[in-house]
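During the second year of the project, the team shifted from modelling isolated chains to modelling whole assemblies. The rationale, set out in the original proposal, was that interfaces cannot be judged from single-chain predictions alone. As a representative example for this report, we include one of the complexes processed in the last quarter. Its constituent sequences, exactly as entered into the pipeline, are reproduced here:
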Amino acid sequence: MTVVGARPQFIKAGAVNRAIQEFNKKKGRIREIWVHTGQHYDYLMDKVFFEELKLPKPDYHLEVGSGSHGEQTGLMLERVERVLKNEKPETVIIYGDTNSTLAGALAAAKLNIPVGHVEAGLRSYNSAMPEEINRLLTDHLSTFLFCPTDQAVINLLKEGIKDGRARIVKNVGDVMYDSILYYSKLAEKRSTILKELGFFTPNSGRAIHESPLHRTPNYYLVTLHRAENTDDPKRLKSILKALNEIGRNTPTVLPLHPRTKKMMKVYHLFRGFKNIKFIEPVSYFDMLKLEKNARAILTDSGGIQKEAYWFRVPCLTLREETEWVETIKGGWNVLTGAKVKRIVGR
Ligand code: UD1
Ligand code: UDP
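Output from the structure prediction step:
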C-alpha cells in the first residue's frame, strides 16, 4: 500500500508505480493500493500531477485537508488505520518527510505491518523543522530503508539503524532522478511555459531578454514554501526584498505555493515587490522546463535543489542548512539563508 498526500510524493510514487508495472509485465504480481491522504488538494497541487503523469486513481481518498500538525496528522492516522485494517497489506510504502509520511508509517507500524521508507536517512539536524521530526520518527519505524545517497546510509548508521536481519538499509538511488530521466525530454517538448511567460518571442524561439552574448533565456526561477521562511515575517520579507532587487535587472519568476500566498496575505506583503513575477504553482512538465532553462534557481525546496543539480543549473538555497549535502560539495548549490545581502551578493 502506497500512502501519499503532498505534491512531491505524487512524483516520487509515480516513479515507483512505473517500476511496479514493468515488473508485473515480466514476472511479478504486485498489487499496489494507492491511499491519498488529501494533504494537498488544490488542482495545481494535486490533480494536475495525476493527469500529467498518468498516475493511478487513488483507491482511497481520505480527504484530510489542511490543519495544525496535530490535527492533520491525527486525522490521517485514524483514517489510514481504518484502511489498513480493511486491506491488510503486506507492506506500506511512504515517501519523504511530510505529515502524510509520518501518519502512514505510524499507523502501519502500530499494526505490525512492515514500513518501507523511500528517501530514508536524510537529516538537516535542525529539529525546529517539522520535516526533521517526521523523517526521524519514520526512519525509526521502518523496516525497509530505501536511501537515496551513501550519506543517508551513514546518517542512519549513526542512529543505530543498519542493514541486517531486522532491517534492510540500502542506497537504492533517487526516484526523483528516475523521474527526470524519464520525463525531461517529454517536458521540454510538451511544455509551453517559456512562451506563455514571454521568455521567448513567439516565432524566433529566441529569448526576449537575452543580450547579444546570451542566446539562452535569461531569468531566475524561485520557489519558496518552507515554514521556517514563510511563517517568519522577517525572513519572508527579507527574501522577497532580495528577489525584488534581483528582479530589477533579470526577470524573476516565482510559482507561488499556497502556504506562501497565505502568509504573504497574513503579513500584508503583497505590495512593493513589483519586480517579482508571481504565478500559480505549475505542473511538473512546466517546472522541469523552467528549471532546465533558468540562469539560476533560488529555492528552499528539497526536491528542487536536487533537480537543479541534475540539470547542472546553479542553485541558491534560501536556508541555513540542507539535507542534500552532495549538491553543496559538488559546487552547484550554495546556502544563502534569508539575508538580502547574502542572496543578492551571490
Ligand atoms: C508540506 C510538507 C513539506 C513539503 C511540502 C511540499 C509537512 C509538515 N510539510 O508543506 O515538507 O515540502 O508539503 O509542497 O507535511 N494549502 C492550500 N492548498 C493545498 C495545500 C495547502 O491552500 O492544496 C495551504 C493551506 O493553507 C495549508 C498550507 O497551505 O494550511 C500548508 O499546507 P501543508 O500541507 O500543511 O504544508 P505545506 O507547506 O504544503
Ligand atoms: N514542483 C512542480 N510545480 C511547482 C513546484 C514544484 O511540479 O510549482 C515539483 C518540483 O519539480 C519537484 C517537486 O515538485 O519535483 C518538489 O516539491 P516541493 O518543492 O513542493 O516539496 P519538497 O521537495 O521541498 O518537499
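The pocket of uridine-5'-diphosphate (ligand 2) is lined by residues 7-8, 11, 96, 223, 255, 281-282, 284, 287, 301-304, 307 (CB under 6 Å). The first strand starts at residue 2 and ends at 4.
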